[in-house]
Amino acid sequence: MNGDTPAPARTGISDEDITAFRAPPPATPPPLPRRRRLWPWLLGAFVVLALSCAVIAAALVAGLGDLVGNEVSVSVDGETWRLGALHGAAVWTVALALTAVIGVVLVVVPLLVLFGLLAAALGIAAALLAALLAAAAACSPLILLGLLVWWIVRRRPARPAAAAG
Length: 165
Description:
Strand content: under 5%
Number of strands: 2
Radius of gyration: 42 Å
Shape: flat
Strand order of the largest sheet: 1-2
Distance between the termini: 78 Å
Largest sheet: 2 strands, antiparallel
Number of helices: 3
Order of helices and strands: HHEEH
């Protein structure tokens, strides 16, 4: 075989011919966005709220003795406590009570305000709906007359011409 002779012609189908024109892989749909869960956010908000209440209460209790001394007292049902005289477990009881009070002020009060605003908004929406329904009922004869005039005056579309046959 010298360089002048042509290569022998190929006959049949080889493995390379079979795999040369493969179909493109099927298109995969884009991945769905991950749905965010609510409970980690609620748990985080609760932890932040609890820590902030605890820090504020601890700061109040720590500064309570310095600020008030023996001059401030609290009377409940005729029983009087001097705030400067609190020591030990009484200090922790006051801290726990202050934490509960701060938690109520930070959570319950805003929720009650939001509930009141929601009730007011629903009341205004109901009043507007009632006014619109009353206006529609009062204007219904005029609306019916307007529809009748429109039905008579409107231009009807031209009918298509029949094909000559």
